[in-house]
From TrEMBL:
<feature type="domain" description="FAD/NAD(P)-binding">
    <location>
        <begin position="10"/>
        <end position="325"/>
    </location>
</feature>
<keyword id="KW-0285">Flavoprotein</keyword>
<dbReference type="Pfam" id="PF02852">
    <property type="entry name" value="Pyr_redox_dim"/>
</dbReference>
<feature type="domain" description="Pyridine nucleotide-disulphide oxidoreductase dimerisation">
    <location>
        <begin position="360"/>
        <end position="466"/>
    </location>
</feature>
<keyword id="KW-0520">NAD</keyword>
<dbReference type="InterPro" id="IPR016156">
    <property type="entry name" value="FAD/NAD-linked_Rdtase_dimer_sf"/>
</dbReference>
<dbReference type="InterPro" id="IPR023753">
    <property type="entry name" value="FAD/NAD-binding_dom"/>
</dbReference>
<keyword id="KW-0274">FAD</keyword>
<dbReference type="Pfam" id="PF07992">
    <property type="entry name" value="Pyr_redox_2"/>
</dbReference>
<comment type="similarity">
    <text>Belongs to the class-I pyridine nucleotide-disulfide oxidoreductase family.</text>
</comment>
<dbReference type="InterPro" id="IPR001100">
    <property type="entry name" value="Pyr_nuc-diS_OxRdtase"/>
</dbReference>
<dbReference type="InterPro" id="IPR050151">
    <property type="entry name" value="Class-I_Pyr_Nuc-Dis_Oxidored"/>
</dbReference>
<dbReference type="InterPro" id="IPR036188">
    <property type="entry name" value="FAD/NAD-bd_sf"/>
</dbReference>
<protein>
    <submittedName>
        <fullName>NAD(P)/FAD-dependent oxidoreductase</fullName>
    </submittedName>
</protein>
<dbReference type="InterPro" id="IPR004099">
    <property type="entry name" value="Pyr_nucl-diS_OxRdtase_dimer"/>
</dbReference>
């Protein structure tokens, strides 16, 4: 061992200091274990600095302005446009100007140690950390190592795209200058949210999607978001492939299938995520770098009694809140196993991530918003459920008309008719995000429809949509 090396033992070593890694370590420490996080970038990870927080900070000013412009009395008072510099400055405040000092202080207060540097598995229960100066530190885990290294943006194999130095979600959420024009390649959540941001701030935006928008959701969600983007001035091209990208002195030229060319100041590649684990020593434990790490529902890697993977790196559900949910289960079960306590690994038990399979909530903060939980109609039928589908126009709800003049939206419940419980819900419309927790509770709790009738929504609120949906189901089943 060189002078630059030292060895330390902990009960738990966590590779990756994002929100998921923080939660794994915190729950294990609360359970009586010692833990250290290894992080080579900023403590707090992607969500805090390049994803959830900065993106929502960028989206909110335009959302607030649109809301005011659609309420008589308030609209007459709104005469200006968004201040782009002020929007960026507010975004910077949410990222603490890309400083993790506050997050590091929290680790210290929670009793979690931090190793700054790049961590790599170098043996069973062993991680070697290389710091910025090249010094190494060997960490050994008495009980567990948890991989929480997250995911990274995919650059699709389009001719010339990588050489054109495209934006990914990182550049889109941290940009300090507004591009005159932006071409977005992709049709998923990042694509539509960033198209919403930059169109609202004043960029000329073209969105190019090989398929339809938000194709994993109910079809009406993508249709309504496409219409909303067009209202913002976005040139939406669905079912359109991109054959090449070239960057020149005046910007980027994107060639579409059929030969049409689009020029833009910048191009954003928003075509998905891949596992961020290519150089962390997975081969030393028999796993393939660059692939999602398979786990059981306690987040333990099959064939191992000490290795766990949590969050995006598993490929289970690429959402921060779902990763934190997994982290709570993983941290608790690691502590339980370390102390020889009983493991509650039955479905919906404390130590499992059952909700990953059929009760995932998600909000897309586009224009309009999309909030969903559980299964779509197509996914429910594919899973073999006997379903009834109830749709209702959100604009017909009294609370919606009070909230915004000309409110437009749509809601859908997917009901398992064999059990008479809700297994899926989707809401599209202005600020529908706050509706989704009620749906999530109904799905996770498997609340019978007969009991849901007694969950009376306050009047006049948009939540009255629940009454209308239940009435619709009642008419179908009568």
């Amino acid at each position: 061992m060189t002078a630059a090396e030292k060895t330390d033992e902990y009960d738990l070593i966590v590779l990756g200091g994002g929100a998921v890694g923080e939660n794994v370590a915190d729950r294990a420490v609360q359970g009586g274990l010692t833990a250290i996080i290894v992080e080579s970038e900023l403590v707090g990870g992607e969500c805090s600095y390049w994803a959830c927080m900065p993106s929502k900070a960028l989206l909110r000013p335009a959302q607030a302005l649109r809301a005011a412009q659609h309420v008589g009395g308030a609209s007459q008072a709104v005469t200006g446009t968004l201040d782009v510099r002020a929007v960026f400055d507010r975004r910077d405040s949410f990222t603490s100007n890309w400083s993790d000092d506050g997050q590091v202080k929290w680790l210290d207060s929670a009793g979690i140690d931090l190793a700054r540097g790049f961590g790599r598995l170098t043996g069973e229960r062993e991680v070697t950390v290389t710091d910025a100066d090249g010094g190494t530190r060997v960490l050994r885990a008495r009980h567990a190592v948890a991989i929480s290294t997250g995911s990274e943006a995919v650059i699709p194999p389009i001719d010339g795209l990588r050489e054109a130095a495209p934006w990914t979600s990182r550049e889109a959420t941290s940009a300090e200058e507004l591009p005159k024009s932006l071409a977005v390649i992709g049709g998923g959540v990042v694509a539509v949210e960033m198209a919403t941001v930059y169109a609202s701030l004043g960029s000329t935006v073209t969105l190019i999607a090989r398929g339809e928008l938000l194709s994993s959701m109910e079809p009406f969600a993508g249709e309504r978001v496409a219409a909303g983007l067009k209202e913002l001035g976005v040139d939406v091209r669905t079912s359109t492939g991109t054959t090449s990208v070239r960057r020149g002195d005046d910007g980027v030229t994107i060639t579409l299938e059929g030969g049409e060319e689009i020029t833009a100041s910048e191009v954003l590649a928003a075509t998905g995520r891949s596992a961020h684990n290519r150089d962390i020593g997975l081969e030393t434990v028999g796993l393939e770098p660059g692939k999602w790490i398979e786990t059981d529902d306690t987040l333990r890697v099959p064939g191992s009694d000490w290795l766990y993977a949590v969050g995006d790196v598993t490929g289970r559900v690429l959402l921060t809140h779902q990763g934190k949910y997994q982290a709570r289960a993983a941290g608790d079960v690691i502590a339980a196993r370390a102390k020889g306590e009983e493991v509650d690994d039955a479905p919906w038990g404390r130590h499992v991530a059952t909700a990953d399979h059929a009760a995932v909530p998600q909000v897309t903060f586009s224009f309009p918003e999309v909030a969903s939980a559980g299964l779509t109609e197509a996914a429910a039928r594919e899973a073999g459920h006997e379903v009834a589908v109830v749709d209702y126009d959100l604009g017909w709800v009294a609370g919606a008309s009070v909230y915004e003049d000309g409110f437009e939206g749509q809601a859908r419940l997917v009901i398992d008719t064999a059990r008479d419980v809700v297994i899926g819900a989707t809401f599209v419309g202005p600020e529908v995000a706050e509706l989704i927790q009620a749906a999530t509770v109904a799905i996770v709790g498997e609340v019978p429809i007969a009991r849901l009738w007694h969950a009376v929504p306050a009047y006049p609120t948009i939540s009255e949509i629940w009454l209308r949906l239940l009435e619709g189901y009642g008419r179908q089943s009568a």
